[in-house]
Amino acid sequence: MASLLGVSFLARTAITADVMALTMYVVLGLKMSYAAAGGVAAALTTGLALGGPLLGRMIDRRGLRTVLLVTVVVQVVFWLSVPILPYGILLGAAFAAGLLMVPAQPVTRQAIAAMTTAEQRRAAFALESVQGELSYVVGPAVVVLCAAKVSPGVVAWGVGAAIVAGGTGIAWLNPPLRAEGEADAGAAGRPPRREWLGVGMMAVLTMAFGTTTLLSGVDLAIVATLEEAGQVSWAALVLAVLGVASVAGGLLYGAVSRSLPTWLLLGLLGLVTIPAGLARDWPWLCVAVVGTGFLAAPTLSAVADAVSRLAPAGVRGEATGLQSSAQSAGFALGSPIAGVAIDVSVPAGGFAAAGLAGLAAALTGCLLSRRCPSPRPPTSARRESARGADATHVQ
């Protein structure tokens, strides 16, 4: 587990920095506008959102190493080509690179579900969420610092090299994606989507989307608040406080013996985010975002834990891919939603919009979870495979 988390941290840190690296290349290397850079970032993000379920399904069917080999080769070709591609071709290539990005995050989550017991899983997913927070703190910052010292093309090569190294390391480790008791279940075939992609899973995916929508909106609201106060240079410090608080919250959540429902964690996250808009300068904003940060990693880990419990072993790759797609969509839409609220009101409106989006997702998740039907009896195919099972395992 330690080796996997270390290697996947390298890959995830580089993946979180890829948008910044491409932005720097388009603006500084191609001498184009930030709008043009946003187009490349949107193409990459769209590919990431669409590629999650596709790669997850390929992992379920073809195995981990096959998918990692394909994605690593694609990343090698893309990042080596970035400095020589004209803008029009770069747009299409960025979409393809996102579609076939090394699936470091989904694979880590699958491996955690396979390598831990039910009692250990919540703590392990909390640690995985902390890893994600650290990657968001480190990755873009390193790219910005490097872009000031070397050419943007070299920075792009460095990001690509880190992604490739991380994907290669995961392939070398080849972590198990199914527990020993799940191997036979996987061999029995993939269950139909209607059996696992039901109301309960849709509730969790909705909350995954709502969580990242909130967090993306908060980032923009912080910048807008400090820009209005003439203190935008302090944004990095406030974002660092947000990240540290999230790491602390994730570690504490993993250490406690009892967990809270995902919808309750997300609802609390939304509630503590809305009042952050009352802060008017950077010292008070540092205090105001602590609550948001403290609940961010626990909410993300609860989402990952819920997906692992609801997804059968044979489709866990596709399920974690859907989770990644929902979170990518939330990150993509959170900033525009908060931006509209800021434009029509004040910077505090960004915090309010982000918090209300989280509350809406929490309420939707709660209502859908209550409608989730009890597990159905096994299908005829399952009955045949279950005849010899121990009676205590029959639902």
From TrEMBL:
<dbReference type="InterPro" id="IPR036259">
    <property type="entry name" value="MFS_trans_sf"/>
</dbReference>
<feature type="transmembrane region" description="Helical">
    <location>
        <begin position="260"/>
        <end position="276"/>
    </location>
</feature>
<keyword id="KW-1133">Transmembrane helix</keyword>
<feature type="region of interest" description="Disordered">
    <location>
        <begin position="373"/>
        <end position="395"/>
    </location>
</feature>
<protein>
    <submittedName>
        <fullName>MFS transporter</fullName>
    </submittedName>
</protein>
<feature type="transmembrane region" description="Helical">
    <location>
        <begin position="348"/>
        <end position="368"/>
    </location>
</feature>
<feature type="transmembrane region" description="Helical">
    <location>
        <begin position="232"/>
        <end position="253"/>
    </location>
</feature>
<feature type="transmembrane region" description="Helical">
    <location>
        <begin position="154"/>
        <end position="175"/>
    </location>
</feature>
<feature type="transmembrane region" description="Helical">
    <location>
        <begin position="196"/>
        <end position="226"/>
    </location>
</feature>
<keyword id="KW-0472">Membrane</keyword>
<dbReference type="Pfam" id="PF07690">
    <property type="entry name" value="MFS_1"/>
</dbReference>
<keyword id="KW-0812">Transmembrane</keyword>
<dbReference type="InterPro" id="IPR011701">
    <property type="entry name" value="MFS"/>
</dbReference>
<feature type="transmembrane region" description="Helical">
    <location>
        <begin position="32"/>
        <end position="51"/>
    </location>
</feature>
<feature type="transmembrane region" description="Helical">
    <location>
        <begin position="87"/>
        <end position="104"/>
    </location>
</feature>
<dbReference type="GO" id="GO:0022857">
    <property type="term" value="F:transmembrane transporter activity"/>
</dbReference>
